[in-house]
Amino acid sequence: MNKSLLPKIRFKGFNGEWVLKQIKALGNIKIGKTPSTKNEKNWLNDVLWITIPDMTKKYLTNSKKKISLMASKKNPVVKEKSILFSCIGTIGNIGITTTITSFNQQINSISSIKDVVEYVYYLFQYNTEKIKSYSLTQTLPMINKNYFENIEIFVSLNYKEQNKIADFFTIIDKKIELVKEQLTLLAKQKQYYLNNMFTNEKSYPQIRFRGFINENNFQKVKLRTIATIWGGSTPSTKNKKLWLNEIPFITPNFITKNNSMLLNKYDRFITDKNFNFSNKNDILLTCRAPVGVVTINNLEKCWFSQGIKNIRTGKLINHKYLYYWLYNNKNVLITNSFGTTFLEISNKDLENIQIYITCSLQEQTKIAHFFSIIDRKIELVKEQLSLLVKQKQYYLNNMFI
């Protein structure tokens, strides 16, 4: 028996070799179409009309736009339990239809599938990178129908094995969806408390800790009165001596990708020079491309590019409390920005931003601690989600060929 025709991980009781098939052997292949937008009668809410943004989940149950029964007679449609695969622009979005469905020209359908449909769905998930490799290299990546339907993939011929594999990955996907829902709920909870535990010029906080309810010790201050602010710079990339592995160097892109309250890592270094470094517990705020992404420096020290402002708090404010105020008031930062090619907030404009704070450091600390707990929960759930996604990919790589 040829081992190259066998998955590395397999359920007990299944021993046969997998077979190489062209995609067109799995079912009927169709390309979608867009009905004329000039005719309003084409766009009644009768039949789902799937575009790539609609393909976010395994089962396709809804679409932003729908077409009329009349238009569906002239447009390609498929019945339930068909597979849709995006082939133009974004390649590799996959979904299973749950009712009579139409779709646009960026999508290919596989209908009248004789194999277990959920198995074919995961078969396409595993083979997405292979299918992408057949795309034409141009401004808009695409795979034409002829290339797509002739791509060869390995398939199990045993329906019981197909069912076992489909059920196994369905369980993992359900776990992933539950964790995503948990993450969404935590994010909503955090935003609710942010909206209700900070004051503004219109009202005092709606939610406060015991012991502070009767205190109206709030004041409006300019940011420069409670913190020191300065910008960064980027050493010349032409001089390699300035880029030795000595001091972490942070960019706006890295802060945005890090997407976390604490900055614990970095991907670039510079040479240790006489910079006014960012120290641990300083706030780093992106001041251009984009404006308003914040993080707290958890490194001993680092330097940063001109797209970042460093904010060092004084004795009147808790640094985490200020972090959460900035996090929740990104719109204020953007409103005070300028620029045509891209928005940017200057040092002066940032310093003059007015914020409403509680004068009680004890209350600031309690609020900061409260949100830190929520953020820690969010980080733990993100880690759980990441592990599940990696687990799924591991099994895809080893239970398919």
List the helices and strands and how they pair.
Elements lengths: L18 E4 L5 E4 L15 E4 L8 E2 L4 E3 L1 H4 L4 E2 L4 E4 L7 E4 L3 E3 L3 E5 L5 H16 L12 H6 L1 E4 L3 H39 L20 E5 L4 E5 L15 E4 L1 H7 L3 E2 L5 E2 L7 E2 L3 E5 L3 E7 L3 E4 L3 E6 L5 H10 L1 H6 L11 H5 L2 E5 L2 H39 L2
Parallel strand pairs: 3-9, 4-8, 14-20, 15-19
Antiparallel strand pairs: 1-11, 2-10, 3-5, 6-9, 7-8, 7-10, 12-22, 13-21, 14-16, 17-20, 18-19, 18-21
Helix pairs in contact: 2-4, 4-9, 6-9
Question: Overview of this structure, please?
Answer:
Strand 18 and strand 19 form a beta hairpin. The radius of gyration is 27 Å and the shape is elongated. The chain has 401 residues and is α+β, with helices and mostly antiparallel strands. It has helices spanning 69-72, 117-132, 145-150, 159-197, 252-258, 319-328, 330-335, 347-351, 361-399; strands at residues 19-22, 28-31, 47-50, 59-60, 65-67, 77-78, 83-86, 94-97, 101-103, 107-111, 152-155, 218-222, 227-231, 247-250, 262-263, 269-270, 278-279, 283-287, 291-297, 301-304, 308-313, 354-358. The chain has 9 helices and 22 strands. It folds into 3 domains: 16-157, DNA methylase specificity domains (Adenine-n6-DNA-methyltransferase TaqI, Chain A, domain 2, Alpha-Beta Complex), CATH 3.90.220.20; 161-210 and 360-401, Helix Hairpins (Orthogonal Bundle), CATH 1.10.287; 218-357, DNA methylase specificity domains (Adenine-n6-DNA-methyltransferase TaqI, Chain A, domain 2, Alpha-Beta Complex). Helix 6 (319-328) crosses helix 9 (361-399). The chain has a 5-stranded mixed β-sheet, with helices on one face. Strands 13-21-18-19-15 form a 5-stranded mixed β-sheet, with helices on both faces. It has a 4-stranded mixed β-sheet with strand order 5-3-9-6. 33% of the residues lie in helices and 21% in strands.
